[in-house]
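Lecture notes, structural biology module. Today: joint structure prediction for complexes of two components.
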Amino acid sequence: MDGFEKAMSLLPPRLRQAVLPFGDRQVEEIRLRIDRRPSLLFAGGETALDTGRTSNEDIRCVLEKATGASLHSAAPALREGYISCMGLRVGVCGRGVIQKGELTGFRDFSSLALRIPRECRGACDGVIHQMYKNGFENTLILSPPGVGKTTALRELIRRLSDEGMRVGVVDERNELAAADGNGAGFDLGACSDVLTGVAKVQGAMMLLRGMNPQLIALDEISSPGDAVALEQICGCGVGLLASAHAAGREELERRPVYRRMLELGIFSRTLTIHSEGGRRSYRTEVLRC
Amino acid sequence: MLKYLGAFMILLSGLSLGLGRVMEGRRRIGTLRSVLAALELMQGELGANAAPLPELCTALCRRASPPAADFFQNLNASLDRLGEEDFAALWDRAAEKELFALKNGELEEIKALGNIIGRYELDAQLSALRAAAAAIRLCLDRALAEYPGERKLGLMLPTALSALLALALL
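The predicted structure, tokenised, for the full assembly:
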């Protein structure tokens, strides 16, 4: 099953019928908003489907299918605003349930965004040669949400791994490997070892201790805890490859979590992804000499 | 001779009617006991491991006693229909099929859980399970208290009536 088929399998039959004709196009997300028509997100923008409005039952049906009718077992991810299922990320909005001052879950879900992961072989071939002609350098992939950080990270991992580098991947949300439990998923290269469902800081240390990696890859560095993981790995003789939400270096420097990483010189290089009119371009920049 | 045979048949049918009612009562008590134990197991599994429902059903198939074990087996087998039908409908159908010995109000207690289990945060599910277990325990106590009387009445009334009818026919 590819990402689109996996996303389709989560939809109720009525919506599945409406989305099916778009299977051969590059759908990036399926978006369901209560009392609105479902829509598909393409690189060029969002298109509403010619079908009835999304009901409470539609949303509940997707959530039940995605969690195996066990919302409670997805609680840690839900607190971060998403559910991970078969390598798909389902973003959620609704009414948060706060207990003792902490978000414990959601009720009255109002929107879902089913992100469809894709494998784009050769997507950043042009920059890879330019980036690593003198050997691997710690690299941070930057782009706004939905532009293709995870796809680019997956492609870099696969290329470096196929070239013989032992890559330890901390795939906290199972989005890089997108394994569905039967071993199927995206190709992360011949020499990759994937740790799924483990927090970045813990996973990185586990890989360091147990798998003798030459490079550790992590998706979406966003919290102070993630930055701590990077600080701990940096200086252990292991390369780093990670991604972060930012349109460019300037934005990165504005956020304290990233500013500290830049000050510590954890990354030597950035790979920034831009999207204009549905076309993606890659630009690499050296951070320090 | 045929008259005696007819009277005997009437007596026998009255006795079997009475026995049937007694068995029904026993089956209901057995089901209530089994459901109560399963609800307690469920609280343990959910509270300790926050187990997802397919895992929970598998564990309860093994650890619960019938007919609650059959209920969870039925539910587990129907989980692949999620997406086509909502979970509450699958839960209701399994309850109606496997816990048929329960009286209406008792079955409704169990069916109501289908709208809560897996749908709300863990604390809400656990408190719904506790409330359902308390309600089922009350039903069980009541059923146990009523059972001796019901057994006597169930056995004696149809038997006596059929004996009277048989005598009248003779």
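Point to remember: Chain B touches chain A at residues 46, 50-54, 56, 79, 82-84, 86-87, 117-123, 125 (CB under 8 Å).
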